[in-house]
Design goal:
By secondary structure, the protein is α+β, with helices and mostly antiparallel strands. It has one domain. It is built from seven helices and 15 strands. The chain has a six-stranded antiparallel β-sheet with strand order 8-15-14-13-9-12. Strands 3-4-5-6-7 form a five-stranded antiparallel β-sheet. Strands 1-2 form a two-stranded antiparallel ribbon. Helix 3 packs parallel to helix 7.
Length: 237
């Protein structure tokens, strides 16, 4: 995660003999999530080497059982919609935010997510309609299966029009979505919650250099000013 060329933190995946490990670079702490398949069983566990025992959470499921669950979830997610049914269709700034996938660095195979790109996108938004516009689902289909939101009394859904009668409708709450029901999805939720509960202020301060934070803050403020006013600040001696 960067602010242009200023690196703030590192997280990602790494292959190991056990399978795939998800990690966040934490000075002095080794808290990681491991996901792997063995003998037809998918397993996922969370470890903190400062704990005894180190394994603080784990789950497993047979591959076939998981496949059956996902098929049932997919079938429930494909539904018919009325010809005049509406949704909140994503506009270009929202699509730009969703499309902020990391860019690969050919030299070290790392990827970066630039926070300034998010700042620039949000600063281009003038009204709510620049993000979401109420329209018929069929209009979104004509624009290339344009996704959008639908709301019920208790929850929200992400909708993708598939044809003139059918759409894909997925719960916007990751915990209730198809992905959130998989061992890896459950593990990611556990991992994020564990970091939130376990890391102290000292842990967080050890991971960030104060000078780097100040430089990143100044760069974000400059980018915001440039985006909203078109003026590039100059430094006076």
């Amino acid at each position: 995660m960067t602010v242009d060329d200023i690196a703030l933190m590192e997280f990602g995946f790494a292959e190991s003999s056990s399978g795939m490990i998800f990690y966040t670079r934490l000075p002095g702490r080794n808290i990681h999530l491991t996901y792997f398949e063995r003998d037809g069983v998918i397993k996922c566990h969370l470890k903190d080497t400062d704990r005894h025992p180190s394994k603080v959470w784990e789950t497993e499921i047979e591959v076939q059982e998981l496949a059956d669950r996902l098929v049932r979830s997919l079938k429930r997610s494909i539904r018919r919609y009325n010809w005049n049914e509406t949704y909140l269709m994503f506009q270009q700034p929202m699509l730009d935010l969703m499309g902020q996938f990391p860019i690969a660095d050919e030299e070290d195979c790392k990827q970066s997510f630039n926070l300034l790109d998010t700042v620039r996108i949000f600063s281009s938004v003038k009204t709510d309609k620049d993000l979401l516009t109420r329209t018929r689902i069929r209009e979104g289909l004509n624009l290339g299966n344009r996704p959008g939101f639908q709301n019920s009394l208790s929850q929200s859904y992400i909708v993708f029009p598939l044809d003139m009668q059918i759409c894909f409708r997925m719960n916007a709450d990751f915990r209730r979505s198809i992905l959130g029901k998989t061992p890896f999805g459950q593990g990611i939720l556990r991992y994020v919650k564990y970091l939130e509960d376990e890391l102290t202020d000292r842990d967080m301060e050890a991971g960030f250099d104060r000078d780097t934070i100040n430089k990143a803050k100044a760069a974000m403020e400059t980018a915001l000013l440039e985006s909203t006013t078109g003026i590039t600040p100059t430094m006076n001696d």
